[in-house]
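Methods — Computational structure assignment.
A single polypeptide chain was analysed. Its primary sequence is given first, followed by the predicted tertiary structure written as structure tokens.
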Amino acid sequence: MRSTIIGPVLVCALTLVACSPAAPPAGPPAETTPAAEATGPAGFPAETGTSTGDFHPKNAPVVVYLVGTDEKLAPARRTVEAPAVAKGAMEALLAGPNAAERAAGLGTLVPAGTRLLGVKVGSDGVAVIDLSEEFDDGGGTLSMTLRAAQLVYTFTQFPNVQGVRFRMEGKPLDVLGGEGIILEGAQTRAMWAESAPAVLIERPAFGDRVSSPLTVTGSANVFEAVFRLEVVGPDGKVLAAKVVQASSGTGTRGTFSATLPFERWGSGTGKLVASFASPKDGTKVIAATVPLTLAE
């Protein structure tokens, strides 16, 4: 394999139209394979308290899953051209983090130069993604695991995609790299849950512009499924706090949704912090920090 330099190291309610009438084909998808299409809304409803900018009907917000300094998945926002949002999301992921994200410590384990050769979404909810040979260049077990998880999480953000099958240069990719990372069969989020942080905040995502009340959604796997969310201002003042209980925890990842009204103090840069008490000694453990732009 050729060598490569690896870069430094929520979910939009989009309805996708399946691009193939049946299950994934036995043969390799052609480069001209059409991407899944989006016909859903172009932005979040106003009551979510999350704004991602001004949207044109031809644009759609999506999330790409990068990698944080904790070597766990970190969602970041992108806007891609509709209706080919599936293709757009994958190409945005392959492009890697932007300058602000890199400055904050976000990166990617997908090797530079990896290209999207084709993508199909079958009526069975399984996407087939064909990637160039650079995808399995370099890196050890952690690198291989995280790059696969990045693609699985990015593609399964869409409601009608439950799993992902990998191809490389048109051929089924069942084992990734010399480390033997198994990719056989449809890959689901549950199979890659260990790549997510204890509290995965999927909405809002990195750098989103938000207002009060703020709706926060995601998943968590923490002791007794209980954790704390805080909206923090630029001066470190906690503007809002809430104890949240996920649908499950202590070894099982559960989902959550919480709304936090916060003090209207002006505009500027803040952050959303998720933390939980250590089951060993009760100390505060920071599980996730999401930089935000706070609007009046």
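Note: The helical segments are 85-95, 99-103, 141-155.
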